[in-house]
Structure formats: structure tokens, C-alpha cells
Amino acid sequence: MKPDRIRILDRATVMRCLAGIDPVSVVESAVCEHTLGRSDLPAEGYMAWENSAGAYSRAVAMLGCVQQGRSMAYGIKLINASVTNPALGIERAGGFTVLFDPETARPVTLVEAGHVSALRTAAYTMSSLRTLGPTDFDAVSIIGCGTIAAMHAKLLVQYFRAVRELHLYDIDPARTAALRRDLATHCPDVKVTEHPDVESCVKASQVVVTLTVSSEPYIPPGWFAPGTFIAHVSLDDVMPAVFLEAEAIYVDDIDLVRDNPRRVLGSVMQAGDVVADTESSSGHGHALARRYGEVLLGREEAIRPQDGLVVSNPFGMAILDVAVCQEVAVRAEVAGLGTVVDLMGDPERADR
Questions:
Q1: What is the mean pLDDT of residues 157-163?
Q2: Read out DSSP for 37-67?
Q3: Do residues 105 and 195 both lie within one domain?
Q4: Is the residue at 123 inside a domain?
Q5: For position 286, what pLDDT does the model report?
Q6: Do 215 and 327 lie in a common domain?
Q7: Please, are residues 126 and 191 in contact by the beta-carbon 8 Å criterion?
Q8: Residue 124, in any domain of the structure
Q9: Judgement on whether residues 66 and 192 belong to the same structural domain of the protein
Q10: Over the range 194-222, which residues count as b (16 or more CB within 10 Å of their CB) and which as e?
Q11: What is the pLDDT of residue 282?
């Protein structure tokens, strides 16, 4: 495209382009490139406020670049959210990702971010479950039943054919019921069980995925059966003791997780109770945090749950969004999809 023209891809167009993309493969590649040092993740911009209903609202802006094939993909993700949005009939979070031209630095593609964000989050969980989870399971417990939970459920059925039962819990029973109805349509061969309380849902299977907006830990280690894999996606659900007693903890980036005290693992690491496996104090009575990318690269052997717990606790890197959006953008350009806007407009109209 000519300079100062940007291709805008709405959700429907994004979904059309994603039809030929394996999101798990794209996410794994980006995690490996990051582990090899072929990426950049500047500090995120974060702003929080209360809306007119007194509800938590926030804006997060995340720049990032990652090696993709023979070139780097550059971009920024802006994802905003308010906890009262579902009551308004809209998704809790929404925004866009903008990709940059590596040569001119101009923004060239704007991609609706909500769907891609949910997809890459679920894709990371599928990857970690495939690599670090139990070798044999047919049921999964999902805590939190919003948009990201729906994406997780659909990818679980797609990537793990042995899964025949999903256990659901949400603090709002209406969301649980809505997800169950959605799954009855899209995953008719899977039994879906709604739980009246979070404890029974956690105890129902050996794979537990947390997808809530909780800011206070509430799940103790005693609720998990021996040999459980925990995808701690929403980051503030399990109590600190879960990490201290875990057989293994895997993160996507140790520094990002440790430097964020808003998240329970970050505060536990800052207290020194969990340390990186590369630190000199590792192995001396401390729980260890390991980089998942090392396993994907084959440089470390995966630790799967045996008699204890294995926890995957990703930070959620914006480079995963950039990587997926880059794949989408390439397909959109080839197919001529999206709306191209000239940011300079028509000079003749400007003179009128």
C-alpha cells in the first residue's frame, strides 16, 4: 500500500482470515522467538479509573515486536475494559492492534483486538496443556464463563478430542448458563455441567483453567486433586500456597511476571518465596519459576503433574497478539480484504 494508508480489519474479516491459521503454532513460535531474545517488549502503559457506576475500568497499551519468519513484526495493542460492560450487553474488553511498516514505521494495519486477544490467550493454554498437562484426561474445569472461557472451551474440543466433559462455574449463574447454551450448539458431543460453587468445580477434574476478573486469591491448594494441571490465566485466583507447593511453575517471561505486584505470583516472587530457576538461590527451599519457552525449544524437559500440581501462569505478552495479527494481515492483503483508509484524505476536499 501507499504510505499513510491503513487497512482496517473488523472482527468478521479477522475471523475469515484466521480460518487458515493454526493459532497454537503461531503462539508457540512467538514464545520460542521471545525466549531466544528475538523480540522486544517495552513497559506497558496502564491507566485505571472508576466509571459512573463506580466500577473498575482500565486502559492498557502494549508495544511489542517479535521475529516472524525472516522479518520482525512490529505493533501495539490497546485493550480497554470495564467490569460492568457485560451488563450492558457488550464484552468486558475491547480494542485494537495496530501493525507498523518495518521500513517507514507508519501504521499499516488496524485489527480488531478482542477476538484475537481471546484466541491467542486460549491458544497459549492449549499449548501449555498439551506440553505440561496430564497425559490422559477427559474433563476440564473452567472457572469464569465470559468471552475468553467460550474461546477456551471451543479450542479444548478442537485440540483435545478425548475431552468429553466440561465443568463450569461463574460468580454470575447467568453467565454460566449462557456459556452452557452456547456450548450445546457448538460442542454438542461434550457434556457440560454447571456447578453451584467454585470448590466443587475445581474438584471435578485434573485440569483447571481460571478465567475470572478476581483481584483477590481464593482457591487453596487443598481443593486441587493430586496430579492437577492449573492454567492460571486470570492470574489472581489461586492462593500463594498453591505456588509454594507446586511441583513446577511455568511462565512466559520471568521478569514481566516478577515485576508486576498486582498479580499474586508477582508478589510472591518479589517476597522471595518463588525464584527463577536460573537464580543462584534456586533449589534451596524455594519454589521455582521456569520459562515455558525453554521446554518448547527442547532445552528443558517438561514437568507434568504427578502427585502434586503444575501451574502455568503466563503474563500475557502483546507480541502474541502482534504475531497472530501479522498472519491475519498478510492473508487480508493477499485477498484484498478490509477497508483501506487514506489518513491524509483528499487534498481537494481539504481546500474547500
A1: 95
A2: T-EE-PPPEEEEEE-TTS-EEEEEEEEEEEE
A3: no
A4: no
A5: 66
A6: no
A7: no
A8: no
A9: no
A10: bbeebeebbbbbbbbbbbbebeebebebe
A11: 52
Q: Is residue 128 part of a domain?
A: no
CATH number at residue 216: 3.40.50.720
On whether residue 127 sits in a domain, the answer given is no
pLDDT value for 293: 97
Q: Distance between terminal CA atoms of the chain?
A: 27
Helix (H, G, I), strand (E, B) or coil at 229: strand
Domain that holds residue 281: 134-312
Statement to judge: residues 290 and 327 lie in one domain: no
How far is 310 from 132, CA to CA, in rounded Å? 8
Grid coordinates 486469591 are at which residue? 217
Question: Closest Cα to residue 95, out of 76, 114, 122, 108?
Answer: 114
pTM: 0.94
Q: Cell triple for residue 1?
A: 500500500
Helices (H), 97-172: 113-132, 147-159
Number of domains present in the structure of the chain: 2
Residues 285 and 142 grouped into a single domain = yes
Using alpha carbons, list the distances in angstroms from residue 7 to 41, 102, 336.
24, 16, 10
To the nearest whole number, what is the mean pLDDT of the chain?
Answer: 93
User: In 10 A of CB 30, how many CB atoms?
Assistant: 29
Q: What is the distance between the alpha carbons of residues 145 and 213, in angstroms, rounded to a whole number?
A: 11
Picking from 96, 102, 91, 58, the residue whose alpha carbon sits closest to that of residue 77 is: 96
CB 118 within 8 A of CB 148: yes
